Amino acid sequence: MAKLYFHYSTMNAGKSTLLLQAAHNYRERGMEIYLMTAQLDSRAGPARIGSRIGIGCDAVTYAPGEDLLAHVEARLAEGPLACIFLDEAQFLEPAQVWQLAHVVDDLKVPVMCYGLRVDFQGQLFPGSATLLALADEMREVRTICHCGKKATMVVRQNEQGKVLTEGAQVQIGGNETYVSLCRKHWRAATGAGQARG
Asked: What pLDDT, on the 0 to 100 scale, is given for residue 44?
């Protein structure tokens, strides 16, 4: 039975590595898969999913406003698919998440989405919020804060390492820009969510 999956975490938890490993397992068994990633994020190269540990794979990109249901239907006209893997799912628009739900429900193809849950200000990305509402199964990919506790938040830093608390929700970057923290250390770093005195 096809399902919509959402694998979520903070930055640098290994989401893309897990996606590429799962995709390899399908291919190794002779199954046809379809890899997608956000056009917005080209850190691994254009139309490519890459991991910090050095592995990567070519993928088809998606952009805002694109009809993913129509896109998948066109690909299915070429032959069956065992699974669709989608990286950078936080950049999906809510309507696109609904389109992926139609892929699962109507076209009977499993869709595995991998992405961030919250931004550097502790707010849900719209795509992630819709995935949290619609996904049949959700799996947290865990990483740790410098203190050893589970990291659930992320801070954005400038070139000098100063924590930023304002700015656009989307800014592409890696270890040089983002640090994953537990909620307590995120609150200390950002001054957000302070208790009333």
From this structure: 58
| pTM of this structure | 0.86
Q: What is the pLDDT of residue 167?
A: 65
Q: Using one digit for the tens of pLDDT, what is the confidence trace for 161-172?
A: 777 777 666 655
pLDDT band at 173 (very low <50, low <70, confident <90, very high): low
Give CA–CA dist 42/39, Å, rounded: 7
Specify whether 88 is catalytic: yes
The CATH number, out of the four listed (3.40.50.720, 3.30.450.20, 3.40.50.300, 3.40.50.150), of the domain defined by the range 4-141: 3.40.50.300
From the CB of residue 146, how many other CB atoms can be counted at a distance below 10 Å? 11
Question: Which is catalytic among the residues 32, 73, 78, 88?
Answer: 88
Q: Is 145 annotated as a binding residue?
A: yes
Q: Is 83 annotated as a binding residue?
A: no
**Residue 104 labeled ligand binder:** no
173 is in an annotated binding site: yes
